[in-house]
Amino acid sequence: MTAPGIQIDPKARTGVRRAAFGFIFATALINAVSFGISIPILPNLIKQLNHGDTASAAEWNVLFGTVWGLMQFVFGPILGMLSDRYGRRPVMLLSIFGLFIDFLVLAFAPNLVWLLVGRVFNGVTAASFSTANAYVADITAPENRARYFGIMGSAFGFGFIIGPSLGGLLGEASLRLPFMVAAGLCLINGLYGLFVLPESLTPERRSASVNWARANPLGSLAFLRERAQLGALVSVAFLFQLGFTVLPSVFVLYSGYRYGWTPGILGLTFMATGVSQIVVQMFLVGPVVKRIGERGAVLLGTGMGTLGLIIYALAPTGPLYLIGIPVWAMSGFTTPGLQGLMTRRVGPQHQGQLQGVSQSVQGFGSILGPPLFGLTFAWAVRNNAALHLPGLPILISAALLASAFVLSLRVATPAPATAPA
Fold it and tell me: Residue 25 and residue 333: Cα distance in Å, rounded?
C-alpha cells in the first residue's frame, strides 16, 4: 500500500484501489456493527440508568432513535460537501475517530444525558457512509459502480448478523463491554487509515469552495433541482428507505404477537435475513446489473421488495413468513442500481454532495418510519378484534415500495451521454 501523496505506478493502481476499497468496506462494516450492537444493549442500558423504569426507558429509547436519525438528516450534506472540497480521506478519518470517541462516551456514560450525547455523536459520525460511497464512486468505473455499491450494502447485512450477536454475547458480561470493544475496532481502523489510506479525490477534481448555504438538508435540495431527474431518483430512494424502516420498527413486536416467536427464533430469523441480504448484495448484484442494467436492478429490487413485504404482512403462520425472507432479500438490488444511476449524473467534484443529500434523505426516513409504523401497529393491535390486521404497518410499507416501483418506471433512465458537471 502506498502512503498518501506518493505517486502510484499505473501497474500497481488496481491493487491500490482494491486495498482502498477493502478499507472503505471495513469502515462501513464497523458503522453497521455499531448500529447492530445497540439493538439488544442500548434499551437495557437506558433502563439500568433509569433505575429500572421500563415505561420511561421506552420513551427515552424513542428519543434516542429519533435523535440518531436527525443527526443523519442534518450532517449528511455537510460531510459530503466537505469531502468534495477537502478530499474524502480527512472526512473519513474524522468520522472514524469521532465514532471511537462516541463509543467511549457510551461505554462510560454516568447518566442518561451523557448517553444521549453519545448517540448524537454516533448519528453524526455514522453519516460518514455518504463519504464512503463517494470514495467508491471515485475509484470505480461507472459501469462497475452498482456492483461495488452492492458489496458496500452487504456491510449492513454483516452488521445485522454480527452487531446484535456481539452485543448480546458481550452484554451478558457487562452492558458497557460491547461499546468498549466497538471503540477498539474503530481505533484500529482509524490508525490503519491514518497511515495507509490514500486520497481518492485529487486536488484538481475537488470543488472550489464550500457552499454553506447548501450544506444543510433544505439548501441541498437546490442541488437536486439543478440536475435532470436526480431529484426523482432520490425520491425513489426516500420511498424505499421509509418503507425499509418498518422491520426495525415493528418486527420484534409483530412476530411475537402474531407467531409467538421466542428470542431464540428471533435470533435465527435475524441471521437468515442477514445472510440472504449478503448473498444478494455481494454475489448477485454484479452479474444481474451486467445483464439487466441499473434500471432493471431498481425495478427488480422494488418489485420483489413489495412482494416480500406482502408475504410478511399476510402470512398467517411463522413458516409462511419465512418464505418471504429470500423474496425480501432481493430488495437489495434497489440501492446499488439507484447509486449507479445517480453517480453517473454528477462529476467527481460533486459526488460527496450527492451522497450527502442521499444520506440526509435516508436520515429523514429514519425519523418518520418508527412513529409511522410503530403507532400503526399499536392501533392495529388495539383494534384486532374488529379489523384483525396486525400486518397493517407492513402493508403500508409495501405500498411505499410499490410507489417506488411505479416512479422508477418513469425516472430510472440511463444518464445523459454528455459529461456531468
Answer: 18
